[in-house]
Every structure is written in C-alpha cells, then in structure tokens.
Amino acid sequence: MHTKLPFILLCALCGFAQAARPNILLIVGDDIGYGDLSSYGCKEIATPNLDAIAAGGTRFTSGYVTAPVCGPSRAGMLSGRHPSKILPYAGNPKHGSDTGLPKEHRLISDHLHAAGYRTAALGKWHLGESAGFEPQARGFDSFYGFLGGMHDYFNAEDKQWGPIMRDRGKGELKDYLTFALADEAAAIIAQKSDKPFFIYLAFNASHTPLQVPEEYLKKTAHITDPMRQKNMAMTLALDDAVGRVMKSLRDSGREEDTLVIFVSDNGAALIKGSAENGGSNAPLRGSKIQCWEGGVRVPFFVQWKSRLPASRVSDEPVSTLDLMPTLLAVSGIAAPAEQKMDGINLLTWLEGKAEFPKREPLFWKMGDTNLAIRDGDMKFVRVGKQQGLFNVRTDPCETKDLSARRPIITRQLQAKWKEWDASAAGASTPGGKQTGTGAANPKRAGNAAARSTWTGARPEILEYKRAGDAVLTLHVFKPGDWTAADQRPALVLFHGGSWKVGEPAAFYPQCEYFAHRGLVAVSAEYRLGTKHGTTPRECVEDGKSALRWVREHAARLGIDPAKIIAGGGSAGGHVAAAATIIEGFNTPGEDAPVPIDPKALILFNPVLDTSEDGFGFEWVKDFWKDISPAEHIRPGLPPMLVQFGDKDPIYTRGTIERFRQRMEAAGNRCELKIHPGHGHGFFNLNRSKEAYRLTLSEADRFLATLGYLDGPADAAFMQWQCDRP
Fold first, then answer.
1. Cβ-count burial of 91 within 10 angstroms (0-12 exposed, 13-18 middle, 19+ buried)?
2. Which of 274, 468, 534, 630 could form a disulfide with 538 if both were Cys (CB 3.0 to 4.6 A apart)?
3. pLDDT digits (tens, 9 = 90+) for 658-700
C-alpha cells in the first residue's frame, strides 16, 4: 500500500501536467498573398473566419517565412532551422525523386509526439515522397493528403502529382479537397482523448490549379479579372473551411485551450509561367519566388484564448523559425541539447509579460542573385539585377532605396549575409537521399569547411570550457608523426560569422595543412549570438579561455607552450586579436595568472576596429572601445600578418592601413598583404581555391620567417586539398 502510493501520485501528477498542455492547430495556406485576406486590407471579399482568429489573438504585420517557395518554407517552419542549413537541394524537392528533408533533423511533430501528443498531418506535405520521408516517419501518427507540391481539387488521382494518400496507402476524396481537409481536422478534434492534439493542417489553397465549386465563382462574379476571380473564390472556400474547423473546436469545448496559428507558406505567385495564381501581395513589392517583401512577408496570426490577450497587432519581425522554440515552450518540452534552432521563443512576449526578445538578423536565399537580410529595421535585398537597402519598418513597400545614402550599412549587411551564407553552406548535411547518405547539393557537398562533408583528416575534439549550457570544444589536428613527448609549435584558429554564427569546421582545411607541415593545429569553438544569446564580449572571453587551455595542457598536446600562434578570419580574427592584445576578459574561476601570450598572429580579413568606421558598432556601441583591438595597441605586441581582400564590403583598405600604421608606430611588426579583387571570406577553400592557396602560402612564409616552419610552403599538398572531392 505504502509502496504504491508514490506511483499513483506520480501518475496523477503526470496526467494533470499532460492535461494542462494546450492543443495546437497549425493552419498553413498555400500562396496566400499579403493582400488576399480582409484583415490585411483586401477589399474584394471578406474572410470573417480567418479574421476572427486574427482578432482573437495577435496579428503580425511583419510576419516572415524562411523562403519564398513552398518546400523550403515548410522545411523551415517545421524544423526551426533555416532551409539553406539543412536541405541538400535548392528550391523544392523534385517530384518523384528520392530526396527530402534529411531525417537527422527533428521536426516539431517529433518532439510533440514523443511528449504524448496525438499528431496528425493533413494536406500538402512537399518534404519528400520516398519511404522514410513521409509524415508518419516524421513524428505524425496519421496522414491524409498528398506528398507532392500540388494536387487536383476534385479528383483523388492526379495524373501528374499522384494520389490522395491516407497514411501510407491510397486515399479517397469525397468532397472538394479544401473541405475534405477541414472535415478530417474536425473529426480529429471531435475524438475523445486524454491526450492533447497537434494538427498540421496544410491546405493547398490557393495554389494552382485554380479550381473551385461553382457557388464560390458566383460569390465573386463582381471581380472582372478571371484569374483574380478564381483566386478570391478559392480564398472564400478556404475561409469557410477554416470556419468548419473552428466550429469543431467550439463544439468540443476545446477552443479556449487550443493554440491556433495561421500562416501562408509564401507570398502570392505573380510571375507568369511560375504557378501564377491571381493572388495579391499589395501593398508589398514582388512575388512568390522573390526575396522582396511580397515573397516572404505573409499573413501570420495566432490565437490562444485562455492565455494570450486578444486584439493585438504587432509590427515586430517574427518568423516561422520561431514556431519550434515557441511551441516547445508552450507544451512544456525542454529542447534536447542536440536540437539546433534558428528562431526565438515568443511565448512570454505573446502573453504580454515581456518585451519583444532580441532578434538576430533574418536571412533569405534563393540563389546567388535572389537574396535578402533584415537586421533590425534595415533590409538589403537583391533580386536579379535589382538591389537596394530599405527601412522596411517605415517603407515596407521597398520603394525608397537608401543604399547611396547609407553605404556603410549597405556594405555591412552584404557582409553579414555572405558570412551567414558561408556558415549555412557549412552547416548543410547530405542526408537527403532515401538511403540517408545521398549526395548533397553539389555547391554544398564540395564545401570543405563543412564538418558533415569533410573528407580530410579527422580532428580530436576536446572540451575546454563550460559556460551555462554551452559546452565548448577544440578541434585538434596533429602531424602524422606526432608523439606526446613532442615540443611542437601550435596554431589556434577562430572561425568567422559576425560573432553570431559559424563553426570550427570552417578552418579544417587550414588546420589539416599546418598539421601536415608539422604544427599542432587547432580550430576553436566559442559562444555565438544566435546559438547562445551572447555578445562579442563573451566571444573574446572564450578566445582567452581557449588559448589559456592550450597553454595549460601543452604537455598533453605535445606542444611548446612558448610557441603558440593565434589566428582567425573575420569575427574570428577579431577574437584572436582581441584575446591577444586586450587585457582583461578573463572567465571567473579560470587560472587567470597563466599567461595567454601568443607569439604571433595570422589574421584573414579580421575585424580590428569596432568603431563607427569599422564593423559591428550598432551591436557593440555601448562597449565598442573595450573590445576594439585598434584602441588597445601598445608596444611589445607579437608580430602579425594581416591578409586583406581589397573588395571587402566590411572594411576599406584605409581602415586596415590605419591599424598597421598604429602597430608600427608602437614598434610592433605588422605585415599587411593586400589581395586585389577579393572580397570577404576569400581565404576559405570553398570560396576560391586560388585565394586559399595564396593566403595559405603567405601564412606559411610568415611563420617560416619566425622559425616555426622549415622550408617552403607545400604547394603540392595544397593542390591535393583543392583537387580532392
């Protein structure tokens, strides 16, 4: 009796906790433009059921998706990761192929299913059609819908896109598809169960083909443009379908305790020949497929009547990337340590209990000439031959190009996007084939900086620091003839990424080369703004910790503690330089008296000045002098090689020259090597094989002049690295 009581109490408590979790209904529209709902300004029709959800909670006027096309947008929405980081293909997965969203990336449904939710996917999938990619392999108990990117609205069998599916077999279609999906959702809601539900209701309206019951065409007979009339008729039908679903919530007594989210997967398709659907993105510029606001800013609103205030309208930039962390918080699920998320948790802000959380830049990429970044109110966008800088808070229509008036901000946003792009390419994984080991997008698979696709020597990974939940590591490359008794020079490199993104794998090729040349080469991890919510202060602090740990463990690593060299690229160059030059920034509890004392610095397009004329001032303006290497130059600093591409959009050549002049005026050796025609990040092997060889040869030469290397650079080994698949 006494032994059973605790178990009974535990069960009761678990049942109470489970009951307290809300139901979650995620409704996705397909190609619904910003100007297609009456709550967003549409005058041609009224959408009362959708508008009621928007009025019942918070309507976002700056709600963004992760891509301006269907498949990648849905991948980002369900995974909480940017599609450029996780998809092994560009754009949508090819119909009938064996590609899909790689299975190593867990979806919202995986987490909710594991936590005891009933999970159902309804409608359009578009994340992979082969076995292993279907909804029931991705955390959903059941599925009714279709696996591809579009489907006939009246026939179960679409000759081009395949059948309607029920679970893993062929399904029936007894009504207009929009209504059939709504009825499936209503039936699940009506089921009696002690478990909460998560329904992913992904309508294909108003995607082509433009098909709709005749009665809805009669309701839109006042619209003279035939394509627009059909689109508006389909939107009316969608609104009625949503009304059916919401009625089922009310009838079952579950509306108060259900978090309802509506979002479109991208803007309306306005480009002829590209599934044009007659939608409207007014007043925004651009179309589906494009990174203008019209392609990525969409109708987006949430309602949770028992917990969130009603009738709120917010212009803060929110993203479907935020769904994963927010829904995990809503459901009381602690994210596993291995779950990476690119969004932010909006729950306490939505409740009205906190200010809007700090937002890292939002990025978009649909090819090298279709891209954008929004940082704060400012957005840089390039679509084809058109590009510009816009304050999208005051000019959401992107009509007033500010790039000529604000050239520094323009260059900085371009540079941030390039840093992010390099990091995103390095983070993508090749597991998107049916086998789980298929080839990635060729541009990404060939990125030697990506640990997941790295085919060279494997590093030893050693933990050097814990800071909160962050476990920081050093990736150590050793020469082939290394022994623990050695007394070798060591090179510690820090990757770039604007102090916000990136990974140690960025410097794997350089580490492999210098290990081949006889050094112990280390690529160091440090805390990042996007991942850990830190600032550049903590980056410098971690840089000091990494260098101190290497020195303290010199005997274990087989290195000479008096021959440690620091280096890095971009923001990582700042970490190396600041950790070496600037005093302080010691982590409490570390053995601070142990000197860091690098004997040389090798820097690639480094951030050496954080003033208004340098880089990152807007982020660090309250403490920019504290972390700016240019403000701490003094006699006795170690010799330094700075390599700089003169087309770098972050710095002018004059900024780097001034730093060199200050160093030399203080009696320090500072070599500056200018590489004509090269931009930011040019030293990475995945950017330019020629520049990789040039910058590596210069670094080799510099270290040889200091006595750390013997003989000339090994051009044959560099070429072998460049030619390696």
1. middle
2. 534
3. 999 999 999 999 999 999 988 888 898 888 889 999 999 999 9
Contacts 24+ apart (CB under 8 A), 394-397: 396/62, 396/283, 396/284, 396/293, 396/297, 397/283, 397/284, 397/285, 397/293
Q: Are 200 and 181 in contact (CB under 8 A)?
A: no
pTM (predicted TM-score)? 0.63
What count of residues does the chain have?
725
Task: Name the CATH code of domain 459-723 (choices 3.10.340.11, 3.30.930.10, 3.40.50.1820, 3.20.20.80).
Answer: 3.40.50.1820
Selection from 672, 647, 649 nearest residue 659 by Cα: 672
Contact 640, 600 (CB under 8 A): yes
Active site positions, annotated: 70, 126
Query: What are the boundaries of each domain within the chain?
Result: 20-358, 459-723
Edge-to-edge strand ranges of the sheet holding 386-391: 362-365, 370-375, 378-383, 386-391
Note the pLDDT tens digit of each residue in 389-432.
999 999 999 999 999 999 999 999 999 999 898 887 655 544 44
The pLDDT tens digits of the residues spanning 217-267 come to 999 999 999 999 999 999 999 999 999 999 999 999 999 999 999 999 999
Query: DSSP 3-state assignment of 383?
Result: strand
Return the bridge partners of 99, or none.
433
Domain 20-358 in CATH 3.40.50.2300? The answer is no
Q: Tell me if 410 sits within 8 A of 389, measured CB to CB.
A: yes
